Amino acid sequence: MRTIGVLTSGGDAPGMNAAIRAVVRTGIDHGLKVMGIHRGYSGLINGEIFEMDRRSVSDIIHKGGTILKTARCEEFTTDAGREKAVNVLKVFGIDGLVVIGGDGSFRGAQALSKLGVAAVGIPGTIDNDLAYTQYTVGFDTALNTVLDAINKIRDTSSSHERISIIEVMGRNCGDIALYTGIAGGAEKVIIPEKGYDLNELCRIIIEGKIRGKLHNLILLAEGVGGANELASKVENVTGIETRSTILGHIQRGGSPSAFDRILASTMGARAVELLIEGKSSRVVGVQGGKISDMDIDEALSMKHEFNEYLYNLSRVLSY
């Protein structure tokens, strides 16, 4: 192993830069040449590749987004596109590849592994929807971003005695809604894994008003969707003014939290170590507070395990 490449793919996540920094500096510390690849698999196919040194990753650990940029690439989903990517890696003398991204990015790394590329994945996604790891890079920062928004919305919601429905990201995984719902004291968490009953929701709100509640916060995961429609239904049933807020891509941005910086740094270093050890087709994760790794096929075959305990706890604490 003489030369490794690193790319970020799919949706950006806070902490990606910290992971890039760790890959570059760990690689150089082990005597490797490190090549950065712009715009994910699209940049790989197009040869947007350049050598990185220690200064390339100076002053980036605190920055959100990714200095390597990211892009979707339809061409890479084809056999011809993947073959081209493999050839480009050979042209640049890249012996191993670190891929930072989510499920789709990992499936790209999986495909390259089957074509003989030594590839290791780092989970970079705010969704926290990769089953093999307890936490993904960017999830903690997204939670804090949402929590800050909840605190601000609560102020105005309480002043006007309103119901506020806050829609958060996460695709078909409800972790962002669930975790921030507990941390933000939401009256109800609505997630794809459980769905909801409109009558039960309205009953909770009305009972809360009778007890003297000045406001109601409802966290809605985008996998359920329809914050505006739900707000209209709730207002019609309860007679209480209801507003919806869709936080959107604000959740992906911002300076990464200390947790995400440390997680990304340790995962980045471990990814390089795995390549040096001759291990490929692996993904780095965290289990029980310790950095771990797993075969990429096994990791992608696992189903995300819903945290039933936390969901039940959110129901208990909301009353």
Account of the 3D structure:
Helices cover 43% and strands 18% of the residues. By secondary structure, it is of the alpha/beta class. It folds into 2 domains: 182 residues, Rossmann fold, CATH 3.40.50.450; 112 residues, 3-Layer(aba) Sandwich (Rossmann fold), CATH 3.40.50. α1 runs parallel beside α9, α5 packs across α6 and α7 packs across α8. The longest helix is centred in the middle third of the chain and has 22 residues. It is elongated and about 70 Å long. The N and C termini lie far apart (58 Å).
Number of domains: 2
Give the class-level CATH name of the largest domain: Alpha Beta
Distance between the termini: 58 Å
Strand-residue proportion? 15-25%
> How is the biggest beta sheet arranged?
7 strands, mixed
- State the helix count: 11
Q: Looking across the biggest beta sheet, what order are the strands in? A: 3-2-1-4-5-10-11
Enzyme class: transferase
Main location: cytoplasm
Pfam families: PFK
Binding site for ATP: 11, 72-73, 102-105
Q: Summary?
A:
This protein is an alpha/beta fold and 319 residues long. It has helices spanning 16-29, 40-46, 79-91, 103-114, 139-160, 175-183, 198-210, 227-238, 258-276, 296-301, 308-318; strands spanning 3-8, 33-37, 49-52, 96-101, 118-123, 163-168, 188-190, 216-221, 242-246, 282-287, 290-295.
